[in-house]
Amino acid sequence: MSAAGGVARAAERAVLHDCEALQLFTKNNARWIGKPLADDDVRRFREIVDQSGLRPAVSHASYLINLAAPAGGLRERSIAALVDELERASLLGLDGVVIHPGVAAADATEEQALTLVAGALLEAFARGSGGVPILLEHTAGQGRSIGYRFEHLASILEQLGRSDRVGVCLDTCHVLASGYDISTDAGYDDVIRQFDRTVGLDRLRVLHANDSKRPLGSRVDRHEHIGQGHVGVETFQRLLHDSRLAHLAMVIETMKTPGICDSPKGAVFDPLDAMNLGRLRDLRDAPH
After folding, report:
1. What is the DSSP string of 225-240?
2. Three-state DSSP class for 158?
3. What secondary structure letter does DSSP report for 24?
4. Which residues contact 249 (CB under 8 A, 6 or more apart)?
5. Which of 45, 127, 200, 248 is least enclosed, having the fewest CB within 10 Å?
């Protein structure tokens, strides 16, 4: 949900749409460091979340951050921005900060990039950024992006001593686009088993429920409305009725109605959000 007008607006928008969980940006996503959060806005946000039971409530870190950047200005700005994200999340009482692992430099191997990510996370934690967990998001693998293989996530976790401060977020669009076929019964079960063997289902903290405009293995991150892309209705039905994942929240990152999601009027009902939420609820509530 958009935080235009203040973070409390994001919670208001979630309540308006009968959401059960929430993800938001806690600052302008195009800036490295955001303006300080106003005390009244923080207090109102926490009040709405507590009263409505919106849990988990997580933020998504800025896309500017590149934890795989080598030593230099970009790396320092990325670590400082992550510390800022964690401090803001701590103020808001959030359950995690979702972040893409990063983009490898042209002259770096994936292994080197993964080591740089682990080092950046350790540095951020050392700067006293509170106890909010980092949730590494599995990526579609566009360009030089890392994190598109389960082994990448496992490597980062191992280098961090499998710290409790680090979990994982799986995105259904990214999983399919990166080459894991979850579109069939057998393929879906095999992928979940692969993830459990490699990373561990105990590390999975939240799911991003997005269909994909592009096919299996495209390595292109383009979200589509639920049931209208290559992930397909059947896959979401499998997810929603998978006892191994029943405790997890699904966050939807599909296209919103233009001009509504950040309306200056505050929380305004968005028919596209309602459509996608409704499709998932119908699938969840249907006999299986």
Report:
1. -TTSSSS-HHHHHHHH
2. helix
3. E
4. 20, 21, 55, 56, 206, 207
5. 127
Taking the whole predicted model, whether its pTM rises above 0.85 is answered as yes
Sequence-distant (6+) residues with CB within 8 A of 172 are 182, 207, 208, 209, 210, 211, 212, 231, 235, 236, 239
> Looking at the chain, how many residues does it have?
288
Q: CA 130 → CA 63, 163, 203, distances in Å?
A: 21, 14, 20
Query: CB of 93 within 8 A of CB of 131?
Result: no
Digitized pLDDT (tens) for each residue of the chain, 288 residues in all: 999 999 999 999 999 999 999 999 999 988 998 899 999 999 999 999 999 999 999 999 999 999 999 999 999 999 999 999 999 999 999 999 999 999 999 999 999 999 999 999 999 999 976 799 999 999 999 999 999 999 999 999 999 999 999 999 999 999 999 999 999 999 999 999 999 999 999 999 999 999 999 999 999 999 999 999 999 999 999 999 999 999 999 999 999 998 887 777 789 999 999 999 999 999 999 987
Q: What pairs with residue 224 in β-bridges?
A: 211
Question: Measured between alpha carbons, how far is 142 from 193 in angstroms, rounded to an integer?
Answer: 24
Q: What is the dihedral of CA 241, 193, 171, 16, to 10 degrees?
A: 30
Q: Which residues contact 113 (CB under 8 A, 6 or more apart)?
A: 68, 102, 103, 104, 105, 146
> How far, in Å, CA of 82 to CA of 129, rounded?
9
CATH of domain 7-285: 3.20.20.150
Nearest to 26 by CA among 53, 57, 67: 57
